[in-house]
Amino acid sequence: MIGLVLLILSTGCTSINNMRSPIHRSHYENLNKLMHEEALLEEKKPFLKAHLNNGEVILFTNEWSVDTTRNVVTGLAQSYDINRRPTSSGIIELNGEDVVLFETNALNSNIVSSLNGTKIMFLVTAASLFVCIVDPKICYGSCPTFYLDEKPENVFSSDAEGFSSAIHPTLEYKDCDGLGTMDVIGKSVSLTMKNEALETHCIEAVSLTAIPIEDGERIYHNPDNNFWRCTNSQAPSKAEANKMEVSALLASSDLNEYHRWTENGDMTEVEDVYLTFPGIPNTEQYGLVLDFRQSLMSTYLFYGAKAYMGPLNSDYYVEFGKSSMAKPGWKPSVFKEMGGIDVSVWDLSKKQWKEIGTFDETGPIAINTQMLELGGCEGEVKVRLRMTIGAWRIDAAQLVQVVEKLNIEEWTHQPSSIRKQQGSNQELFIDPKLFTEDDQHFVSMPGESFVLDFDISDDVASHELFLFSKGYYIEWMRGEWLGNVNRKKIRQMHLFPKKYLKQEAEKYQMYEEEMERLFWESKVTTPIFTYHAD
Fold first, then answer.
1. Backbone CA torsion sign across 377, 380, 386, 392
2. Is the Cβ–Cβ distance between 127 and 133 less than 8 Å?
3. pLDDT in tens, 29-51
4. Which domains does the chain have, with CATH numbers?
5. Closest Cα to residue 234, out of 166, 297, 281, 304?
C-alpha cells in the first residue's frame, strides 16, 4: 500500500481556503457533492471534473463526450474561477492540454487513453468491485508490487513495492528494493509487476542491478542508497522486548515477525527492543541489517484522511501540487509523529547510547532489507531499536562485517523485453524503452500484470539483486468515503498530530488484529480495464 502514503492536507490550499463567500462555496460544494452522489446510484451518470492549469474548475454533467483525435472534451458544464465563484454554464469545449487533473466515474479505456491516464482520478464504488467490502479504510492499497516468482494470491508479502511514498507527481522519486541473492548464470531474470489496488500507476523507469558475489558475501544498501559488500553475518544472541526474549523471532527472514499491537488506546506510545550480538573477530566496521516493514497503521491513517476529504479529494490533490512542501521526501505530520525505527549502539567507553540513524521505508507489503553502519565496537555489540508500538514489523536482525563501499553502475540493467498476458495463449509485447528515464510514463491500471525480462551478461553464478523503480501513483476515490467529510479532522491531523493519534487509537484498535487478513483479501486480481491494446 501503502504503499504508501500521504495525507494531502496542507492548510495552504489556496483555492479551497479562498472560497470567501459562503454562497460561492455552497454553490460549488453542493453541485460537486451532488455529482459524486449521483455517480454512485445503480444507474450512475458519468460525470467529469476538470482542474485547469490556471486554477479554475469545470464540472461536466452526464452530457459530455471526448474527441479522441483532437484530445478535446465537449459537453454541458458549469465553470468556476480560482475562488470557486461560478462564471459560466452551458456547452463548453475543453482542450486536454489545459488540464492538471480529471476526476470521473467513467471507467472506459477509450476515455483514459484520450485524456491521458496520468491525469485521471477515478471514483468507484469499491463494494461493487468486490473489494474493501468490510470497511473501505482497510482496502488493499499499494504502489506497483514486484514478484520474482509467481506466488499464491493469498501471500502476505511481495518481493518489492516501488515508490511507496509517491502518491502525487511532485513526490516522484527513484526507489530501491533489495531482492536477495539468485543464481543467474546463463539465463535472464524475470520480474512480474502487478497493479493490485484501485490506483493508476504511472511508471517512468524500472531497472535491475545484479552484483556478482562470492561465497559468504552479501551486498546491502542503506537508507541513502549507498551499497556495501559485507561478510560474516551474525544473529542476535539475545533480544529483549516488552520484558520478553524474542531472539527466535529475529534470527532469520521467515515472515515470523516481531510485532506488538497498539496498547492503552494510544498510537504514540514507543517501545525499545534491545539486541545483543557476540561480536565478530577482527572487524573494523560493523553494520546492522534489518528486515522490516510498516504495519497497517499507516494505511488506516491514510485512508481515514482520504475519507475526511470526501468529494473534495481532487481539490486537495491539485492544491497540494502547488504548495512549497510538494517535493520528494515530504511526509505528513501524523507520519512524522509515528516515526521510523531509530537505531542506537551502546558506547562502552562513554557508558551511553549513541544514535546511529533511522530505518523508515514506507509500505506494509514488501519486507525491506537495509543496513546502517555502526562503526567499530569492542567485545559484545549492543543495539537499541526504538519505535512506535504497533507501527512496525521486524522479521530479522543481523550484525555483519562491512568490507567495502561499491559503485553499482556497471551492474545495472534495463528491461530487454516486457510482456503482458492477454488470455491463456496470447501475449502483448511492449517496447522496453517505455521503462527508461525520459519523463514519459507507462500507465498500469488495476488488475494489470506485466512480466519484465532482464538479460544478465555476467558469467558469475551468484548475484545480489536490487530493483530500482521510479514513478508515482494516483489513488482512486472510493464512493464509500464520501459520507465521512470532516475538515476539522484534516486540520487536526496536520496541526496537532499527536492529539489526533491519541483520539483515533481506540477506533484503530477495533480493526487492528483483523486488518492484515482483510487487507490482503481485498487485492484487485482481475483487470478492470486496460490502457494498452493489441
1. positive
2. yes
3. 888 888 777 777 766 678 889 99
4. 211-299+332-408 (2.60.120.260)
5. 281
